[in-house]
Amino acid sequence: MSRIELIGISGSSGRGEGLNPEQRELISACVLVAHSRRQEPLLQGMAIERVPVTPLIGLYRAIESGLTKGNVAVLASGDPLFFGIGRNLIERFGAERVRVHPALSALQLACSRFKIPWDDLAIISLHGRRDDHPAARILRHERVLCFTDQEHSPDSLARHLIATLESVGDSERLLGMRMRVAENLGLSDERLSEGGLVEMAKAEFSPLNMVFFEQSLGSASLPQETLPLTSLPIFGLQEGEISHSRSLITKDEVRAASLHRLRLPARGVLWDVGGGSGSVSLEAARLSPGLAVYTIEKKSEEQDNIRRNIKTYAAYSIRLITGEAPGALAHLPAPDRVFIGGSGKRLEEILQVAANRLRPGGRIVVNAVLATTRESACRTLAELGFQVACSTISVQRYQYQEGQEDQEEAQLEPTVQSFNPITIVTGSI
Questions:
Q1: pLDDT by residue (tens digit) across 192-219?
Q2: Neighbour tally for 230: CB within 10 Å
Q3: CA-CA distance, 386 to 94, in Å (whole number)?
Q4: Number of Cβ within a 10 Å radius of residue 80
Q5: Cis omega before residue 55 (within 30°)?
Q6: How confident is the model at residue 10 (pLDDT cuts 50, 70, 90)?
Q7: What residues are paired with 214 via a beta bridge?
Q8: What are 286-305's pLDDT values in tens digits?
Q9: What average pLDDT does range 42-50 have in this prediction?
Q10: Rounded to 5 degrees, what angle do the CA atoms 27, 21, 87 make?
Q11: CA distances, 166 to each of 140, 171, 279, 281, 322 (Å)
Q12: Mean pLDDT for the chain overall
């Protein structure tokens, strides 16, 4: 059975310093070689049919035709199984037909140049991927290495991060964040550079690069509220840890139950309508980092709380929408989940808009304090074709204090706090 010889070439462009004898022998034994434009010089003097690696549909057709005649070579950058073409070829042609010959990956080269261990490094790829808010992915990590492309160049990423951090007044992270850029790795014109976001936003870079971001959160200049990301719980923030006004916050127990009913996906879009302090958004963002969270809030005081919480917890997958629903929902991407914590007496209108925009398999959760809100939510969701379920939660908290120490047996007298019952209304399709 003929096979695909998938050959990794060292260097960030896959051009490297030339083919070694083993690689040339592998290619010479093939009937066809696929390569990028930059790899063309590697094949000088070799009499073999050549095809470009992009577009993929053209490559697949050429490989299918070539495999009927013999082996096919595909040249790739570094390790083809690390953010490379290897995954596509194995999925398309099967593992038994692909033999991989890896070289040093761009990741390994970059880390060696920067002299940073990478066994605990966060790694993300923006190369050839549509991402209108990469700051959310970058800022959730204290150390992250990025594969880039011309759209997500180091200078454009720096400008994007500056705009994102300035939007919530996070000047401490803005000033404390450092970037390192490795250009043309493994080539004669390799270059390394380093600087802060403002400095790097003004620079120019080769299209072939990798970027390392580091948040210097150990600096004494940073305020106490800027917390080390690794020290934070994934779930279970307490009311006192979330900025809010006048005790107007979804209580811990109710927030936990509401998030349970939302059944958050790993990726997608969440609308948090009437976000208040943003406590539900904040927990959702930490539970599902791949989720784009849109928090709609009309009150300026609560907007300030949301910005403060985003800044404190680096929850930059939350995007604050300053306005009132349903009008503020018009230009948001279609949601996979909708949480309604406040509706300003426009619940039916909001539910209709949400139902019309909801993606298949979506879910709407409404927290209702008043019986009229509960009844309206249940009725409207049922009329819109949802399966409706309701749960009422009544929270009482008991805090025990020790009695007099001179008594033979300490008497524990609880202090009881009772809160208004909340009905969680869930609409699922």
A1: 999 999 999 999 999 999 999 999 754 4
A2: 9
A3: 42
A4: 27
A5: yes
A6: confident
A7: 143, 178
A8: 999 999 999 999 999 999 99
A9: 92
A10: 45
A11: 16, 7, 21, 20, 16
A12: 91
Amino acid letter, 192 = L
Within 8 A by CB and 6+ apart from 394, the residues are: 418, 419, 421
Give yes or no for a contact between 216 and 176, defined as CB atoms under 8 angstroms apart. yes
Rounded-to-integer distance, Cα 141 and Cα 407, Å: 53
Ranking 120-134, 152-166, 309-323 by mean pLDDT, the lowest is 120-134
Phi-psi map region of 185: left, alpha, beta (phi>0 left; psi -120 to 50 alpha): beta
Nearest one of 199, 282, 189 to 234, comparing CA atoms: 282
Q: Beta 143-147 vs 209-215: how paired, if at all?
A: antiparallel
Q: Is residue 21 over pLDDT 60?
A: yes
CA–CA gap between residue 318 and residue 184 (Å, rounded): 35
Nearest to 39 by CA among 103, 110, 109, 114: 103
Smallest CA-to-CA distance from 313 within 333, 334, 293 is with 293
Cα(162)–Cα(85) distance, rounded to whole angstroms? 33
**C-alpha span between 117 and 120 (Å, rounded):** 7
Helix (H, G, I), strand (E, B) or coil at 35: strand
Average the pLDDT over 271-289 and give the result: 96
**CA distance linking residue 362 with residue 364, whole number of Å:** 7
Pairing of strands 32-35, 49-52: parallel
Supply the pTM of this predicted model.
Answer: 0.84
SS3 per-residue string spanning 379-406: HHHHHCCCEEEEEEECCEEEEEECCCCC
User: Which residue type does 51 have?
Assistant: V
Q: Is pLDDT larger for residue 308 or for residue 221? A: 308
Span 97-124, pLDDT tens digits: 999 999 988 899 999 999 999 999 999 9
pLDDT value for 91: 96
Q: Specify the DSSP class assigned to residue 37.
A: G
Token pair for residue 402? 């020790």
Rounded to 10°, the helix 279-287/300-313 angle is 30
Please answer whether residues 184 and 148 qualify as being in contact, where contact means their C-beta atoms are separated by less than 8 angstroms: no
The tokens describing 254, both together, are 């109710």
- Residue 215 is encoded by which pair of tokens? 């948040």
Q: Provide the 10 A C-beta neighbour count for residue 21.
A: 7
Opening angle at CA 151, ends 149 and 154, nearest 5: 70
CA-CA distance, 259 to 423, in Å (whole number)?
Answer: 14
